[in-house]
Amino acid sequence: MLILIETDLEFVGLGFDHFLPTEHRMVVTDAIPEERLVLELNGAPAAAEYSRLIGCPVDLLSPEVFAEHPVLVRNDGLYHVRAIKGVAGDGALAFLSAIDDGLLLTLGRGQEILRTLDAELDLVDARQREPDFILGFDCFLRKLEIGQKRLTDAASDILRARRVLGFNTYGEQHCGVHVNQTFVGVAFFDPIPQALT
Q1: Distance (Å, rounded) from C-alpha 97 to C-alpha 46?
Q2: pLDDT-derived band of residue 172, with 50, 70 and 90 as boundaries?
Q3: Which of 2, 70, 135, 184 has the fewest CB within 10 Å, making it most exposed?
Q4: Residue 176: its pLDDT value, please?
Q5: By percentage, how much of the chain surpasses pLDDT 90?
Q6: How far apart are CA 110 and CA 146, in angstroms?
Q7: What one-character DSSP code corresponds to residue 51?
Q8: CB atoms within 10 A of CB 96
Q9: For the chain, what is the largest distance between any 2 Cα atoms, rounded to a whole number of angstroms?
Protein backbone atom coordinates (compact mmCIF):
# COMPACT_ATOMS: atom_id res chain seq x y z
CA MET A 1 0.00 0.00 0.00
CA LEU A 2 1.28 3.48 -0.85
CA ILE A 3 -0.34 6.55 0.63
CA LEU A 4 0.52 10.06 -0.51
CA ILE A 5 -0.75 12.86 1.70
CA GLU A 6 -0.58 16.61 1.22
CA THR A 7 -1.30 18.65 4.32
CA ASP A 8 -0.84 22.01 5.99
CA LEU A 9 -0.44 20.21 9.30
CA GLU A 10 2.98 19.93 10.84
CA PHE A 11 4.14 16.33 11.12
CA VAL A 12 6.97 14.13 12.32
CA GLY A 13 7.73 10.51 11.47
CA LEU A 14 8.34 7.94 14.15
CA GLY A 15 9.45 4.35 14.33
CA PHE A 16 10.37 2.15 17.28
CA ASP A 17 10.50 -1.37 18.61
CA HIS A 18 11.08 -2.70 22.12
CA PHE A 19 14.24 -4.79 21.68
CA LEU A 20 17.83 -4.36 22.73
CA PRO A 21 20.77 -6.32 21.30
CA THR A 22 22.31 -9.10 23.38
CA GLU A 23 25.83 -10.53 23.22
CA HIS A 24 24.63 -13.51 21.12
CA ARG A 25 25.73 -13.13 17.48
CA MET A 26 25.02 -15.29 14.45
CA VAL A 27 26.42 -15.18 10.94
CA VAL A 28 24.26 -16.35 8.05
CA THR A 29 26.59 -18.93 6.50
CA ASP A 30 24.16 -20.33 3.92
CA ALA A 31 20.98 -18.73 2.60
CA ILE A 32 18.62 -18.57 -0.34
CA PRO A 33 17.96 -14.80 -0.37
CA GLU A 34 15.25 -14.82 -3.05
CA GLU A 35 13.20 -17.20 -0.86
CA ARG A 36 14.17 -15.47 2.42
CA LEU A 37 15.48 -18.79 3.72
CA VAL A 38 18.45 -19.21 6.05
CA LEU A 39 19.85 -22.72 5.82
CA GLU A 40 22.79 -22.26 8.21
CA LEU A 41 23.76 -19.98 11.08
CA ASN A 42 27.35 -20.11 12.35
CA GLY A 43 27.94 -23.13 10.09
CA ALA A 44 25.16 -25.19 11.74
CA PRO A 45 21.58 -25.92 10.65
CA ALA A 46 19.76 -22.62 11.20
CA ALA A 47 16.85 -23.80 13.36
CA ALA A 48 19.13 -25.88 15.59
CA GLU A 49 21.59 -23.01 16.13
CA TYR A 50 18.85 -20.48 16.83
CA SER A 51 17.22 -22.95 19.25
CA ARG A 52 20.52 -23.49 21.04
CA LEU A 53 21.03 -19.74 21.51
CA ILE A 54 17.56 -19.12 22.95
CA GLY A 55 17.39 -22.35 24.98
CA CYS A 56 14.29 -23.79 23.31
CA PRO A 57 13.98 -27.17 21.56
CA VAL A 58 13.46 -26.94 17.79
CA ASP A 59 10.11 -28.74 17.99
CA LEU A 60 8.76 -26.02 20.32
CA LEU A 61 9.63 -23.11 18.02
CA SER A 62 6.48 -21.14 17.20
CA PRO A 63 5.41 -17.65 16.11
CA GLU A 64 5.16 -16.70 19.79
CA VAL A 65 8.73 -17.88 20.48
CA PHE A 66 10.04 -16.03 17.41
CA ALA A 67 8.22 -12.86 18.51
CA GLU A 68 9.83 -13.09 21.97
CA HIS A 69 13.33 -13.80 20.61
CA PRO A 70 13.82 -11.83 17.38
CA VAL A 71 17.06 -11.43 15.51
CA LEU A 72 18.36 -7.95 14.82
CA VAL A 73 20.49 -6.48 12.04
CA ARG A 74 22.55 -3.34 12.45
CA ASN A 75 22.22 -0.60 9.84
CA ASP A 76 23.79 2.85 10.22
CA GLY A 77 24.37 2.23 13.93
CA LEU A 78 20.74 1.25 14.61
CA TYR A 79 19.35 -2.23 15.19
CA HIS A 80 16.28 -3.39 13.24
CA VAL A 81 14.28 -6.60 13.65
CA ARG A 82 14.45 -9.29 10.98
CA ALA A 83 11.50 -11.47 12.02
CA ILE A 84 11.49 -15.22 11.61
CA LYS A 85 8.36 -16.62 9.97
CA GLY A 86 8.89 -20.26 10.86
CA VAL A 87 10.94 -23.42 10.53
CA ALA A 88 11.17 -24.64 6.94
CA GLY A 89 12.27 -28.01 5.60
CA ASP A 90 15.69 -29.43 6.51
CA GLY A 91 15.99 -27.20 9.59
CA ALA A 92 16.04 -23.91 7.70
CA LEU A 93 14.48 -20.70 9.03
CA ALA A 94 12.08 -18.71 6.85
CA PHE A 95 12.24 -14.94 7.36
CA LEU A 96 9.67 -12.20 6.77
CA SER A 97 12.19 -9.74 5.32
CA ALA A 98 15.43 -9.61 3.38
CA ILE A 99 18.23 -11.96 4.36
CA ASP A 100 21.56 -12.81 2.72
CA ASP A 101 24.76 -14.83 3.07
CA GLY A 102 27.29 -13.23 5.40
CA LEU A 103 24.72 -11.12 7.24
CA LEU A 104 25.57 -10.63 10.92
CA LEU A 105 22.55 -11.17 13.15
CA THR A 106 22.24 -10.35 16.84
CA LEU A 107 19.73 -11.98 19.16
CA GLY A 108 17.33 -9.40 20.59
CA ARG A 109 16.05 -9.11 24.16
CA GLY A 110 12.66 -7.55 24.75
CA GLN A 111 11.90 -4.63 26.99
CA GLU A 112 8.47 -4.14 28.53
CA ILE A 113 6.29 -3.54 25.46
CA LEU A 114 3.63 -1.30 27.04
CA ARG A 115 6.16 0.95 28.77
CA THR A 116 8.02 1.36 25.47
CA LEU A 117 4.78 2.01 23.56
CA ASP A 118 3.65 4.70 25.99
CA ALA A 119 7.07 6.37 26.17
CA GLU A 120 7.61 6.46 22.40
CA LEU A 121 4.13 7.88 21.74
CA ASP A 122 4.69 10.63 24.33
CA LEU A 123 5.50 13.25 21.67
CA VAL A 124 5.51 17.03 21.59
CA ASP A 125 6.50 19.42 18.82
CA ALA A 126 8.91 22.37 19.09
CA ARG A 127 6.14 24.40 20.72
CA GLN A 128 5.51 21.63 23.31
CA ARG A 129 2.15 20.67 21.76
CA GLU A 130 0.90 17.09 21.72
CA PRO A 131 -0.07 15.62 18.34
CA ASP A 132 -3.57 16.18 17.07
CA PHE A 133 -3.45 12.51 16.04
CA ILE A 134 -0.96 9.79 15.08
CA LEU A 135 -1.37 7.65 11.97
CA GLY A 136 0.19 4.37 13.09
CA PHE A 137 1.17 1.06 11.54
CA ASP A 138 2.00 -1.60 14.12
CA CYS A 139 3.47 -4.97 13.21
CA PHE A 140 1.16 -7.95 13.64
CA LEU A 141 3.91 -9.69 15.64
CA ARG A 142 3.71 -6.94 18.25
CA LYS A 143 -0.06 -7.51 18.41
CA LEU A 144 0.61 -11.23 18.85
CA GLU A 145 2.96 -10.55 21.78
CA ILE A 146 0.53 -8.11 23.39
CA GLY A 147 -2.29 -10.66 23.08
CA GLN A 148 -0.15 -13.53 24.37
CA LYS A 149 0.69 -11.48 27.47
CA ARG A 150 -2.98 -10.48 27.92
CA LEU A 151 -2.15 -6.79 27.52
CA THR A 152 -4.64 -5.96 24.75
CA ASP A 153 -6.90 -3.73 26.86
CA ALA A 154 -3.95 -1.81 28.33
CA ALA A 155 -2.39 -1.35 24.87
CA SER A 156 -5.73 -0.12 23.50
CA ASP A 157 -5.97 2.38 26.36
CA ILE A 158 -2.52 3.77 25.49
CA LEU A 159 -3.31 4.01 21.77
CA ARG A 160 -6.64 5.70 22.47
CA ALA A 161 -5.09 8.18 24.95
CA ARG A 162 -2.40 9.09 22.38
CA ARG A 163 -5.03 9.46 19.61
CA VAL A 164 -3.52 6.75 17.41
CA LEU A 165 -5.44 5.46 14.42
CA GLY A 166 -4.20 2.91 11.94
CA PHE A 167 -3.86 -0.84 11.60
CA ASN A 168 -1.59 -3.84 12.04
CA THR A 169 0.84 -4.73 9.28
CA TYR A 170 3.17 -7.47 8.07
CA GLY A 171 6.46 -5.64 7.57
CA GLU A 172 6.98 -1.91 7.84
CA GLN A 173 9.15 0.66 6.09
CA HIS A 174 11.02 3.22 8.19
CA CYS A 175 13.62 5.60 6.78
CA GLY A 176 13.94 3.40 3.69
CA VAL A 177 14.58 0.20 5.68
CA HIS A 178 12.23 -2.82 5.68
CA VAL A 179 11.69 -3.71 9.34
CA ASN A 180 9.55 -6.10 11.38
CA GLN A 181 8.09 -6.04 14.90
CA THR A 182 8.11 -2.27 14.72
CA PHE A 183 5.62 0.54 15.18
CA VAL A 184 5.96 3.19 12.48
CA GLY A 185 3.80 6.21 11.96
CA VAL A 186 3.37 9.91 11.45
CA ALA A 187 2.34 12.31 14.21
CA PHE A 188 0.30 15.27 12.95
CA PHE A 189 0.15 18.60 14.76
CA ASP A 190 -2.10 21.61 14.19
CA PRO A 191 -0.42 24.05 11.80
CA ILE A 192 1.40 27.06 13.19
CA PRO A 193 -0.80 30.09 12.49
CA GLN A 194 0.62 32.27 9.72
CA ALA A 195 0.39 36.04 9.87
CA LEU A 196 -1.77 37.52 7.13
CA THR A 197 0.04 39.88 4.81
Answers
A1: 16
A2: low
A3: 2
A4: 61
A5: 62
A6: 12
A7: H
A8: 21
A9: 71
